């Protein structure tokens, strides 16, 4: 009979983008991709868009260079078990957990991630602001498009640091079902997969969006996606005068993205903890 191990978890979400937080402070748990897939299964497991393992950075040899700047590492996994560079909504939920459990006492902290150190601020209203850094705009040699059925739209490619394809449409319903990844052409444009945002322009500083997240499907919200969308929206009418703040409506609520005078994208939004318990991992 297969051995089962009992693991404690906390359930949280940021504008409906939900996560399972797995406390592993001393870094003794080795989560497999199959276990993450099980945990995130909404029918057979607990259900979530991803897993956030909480571990002290000093226990991770591959990220030991970040230990002096951040006590805790956010080990983020997509719902299909794959690793991701960063997750804006996840970072807010991660720090909300650290604050609620007394693992941090300062309002301003750094967290370690696969994309490096990330500064985070706990605001007095319990919203959280994450400095997502400067976006990277890859050079696109050939025009690229997102295709749904017989319709296609040119995409804006930007990394925050996850790869994103931002598409402006007339109506969010134009995207159809986003549980399956829309087609991108040329096919080799994003060899490691891509998050795809469908966006409606509601005004100079306001948009609404839907998103297909790689390794997950359609989610209620995407923090890095909101940042990519805000960056693209700010340039729809020419080069912006910084700082500029954009409101981003997502199915799960609203996020605020401010592009600072230094070009950093500051993501602000709620982070809620809703449940705790234990689960038997196969």
Name of the CATH first level of the largest domain: Alpha Beta
Rg of Cα set: 18 Å
- Which residues sit in consecutive blocks of at least 5 with pLDDT less than 50? none
Number of E-type strands:
19
Class derived from helix and strand content: mainly beta
3D architecture notes:
With 282 residues, the protein is mainly beta. It has two domains: 5-130 and 270-281, Diaminopimelate Epimerase, Chain A, domain 1 (Roll), CATH 3.10.310.10; 145-263, Roll (Diaminopimelate Epimerase, Chain A, domain 1), CATH 3.10.310.10. Helix content is 12%, strand content 42%. The chain contains three helices and 19 strands. The chain has helices at residues 33-40, 88-100, 223-234; strands at residues 5-14, 17-23, 50-56, 72-78, 108-113, 116-122, 128-131, 145-148, 151-154, 156-159, 163-168, 183-185, 195-203, 206-213, 217-219, 244-250, 253-259, 265-269, 272-281. Strands 5, 6, 7, 10, 11, 13, 14, 15, 16, 17 and 18 form an eleven-stranded mixed β-sheet that branches. Strands 4-3-2-1-19 form a five-stranded mixed β-sheet, with helices on both faces. A three-stranded antiparallel β-sheet has the order 9-8-12, with no helix packed on it. It starts with a strand and ends with a strand. The mean pLDDT is 95.
Q: Could you name the key traits of this structure?
A:
single chain, 282 residues, mainly beta, Diaminopimelate Epimerase, Chain A, domain 1, 2 domains, eleven-stranded mixed sheet, five-stranded mixed sheet, 12% helix, globular
């Amino acid at each position: 009979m297969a051995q089962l191990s009992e693991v404690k978890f906390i359930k949280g979400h940021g504008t409906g983008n939900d996560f399972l937080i797995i406390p592993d402070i001393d870094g003794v748990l080795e989560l497999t991709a199959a276990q993450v897939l099980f945990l995130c299964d909404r029918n057979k497991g607990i259900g979530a868009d991803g897993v956030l393992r909480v571990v002290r950075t000093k226990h991770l040899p591959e990220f030991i260079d970040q230990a002096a700047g951040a006590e805790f590492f956010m080990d983020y996994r997509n719902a299909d078990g794959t690793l991701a560079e960063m997750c804006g909504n996840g970072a807010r939920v991660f720090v909300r957990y650290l604050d609620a459990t007394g693992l941090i006492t300062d309002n301003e902290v750094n967290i370690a991630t696969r994309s490096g150190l990330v500064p985070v601020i706990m605001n007095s209203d319990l919203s959280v602001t994450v400095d997502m850094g400067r976006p990277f705009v890859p050079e696109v040699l050939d025009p690229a498009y997102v295709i749904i059925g017989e319709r296609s739209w040119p995409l804006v490619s930007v990394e925050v640091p996850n790869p994103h394809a931002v598409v402006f449409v007339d109506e969010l319903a134009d995207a159809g079902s986003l549980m399956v990844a829309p087609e991108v052409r040329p096919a080799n444009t994003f060899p490691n997969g891509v998050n795809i945002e469908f966006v409606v322009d509601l005004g100079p500083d306001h948009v609404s969006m839907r998103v297909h997240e790689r390794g997950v499907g359609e989610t209620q919200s995407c923090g890095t996606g909101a940042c990519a969308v805000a960056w693209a929206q700010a340039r729809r009418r020419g080069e912006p005068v910084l700082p500029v703040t954009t409101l981003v409506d997502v199915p799960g609520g609203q996020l605020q993205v401010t592009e600072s005078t230094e070009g950093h994208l500051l993501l602000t939004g709620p982070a809620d903890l809703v449940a705790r318990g234990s689960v038997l991992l196969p």
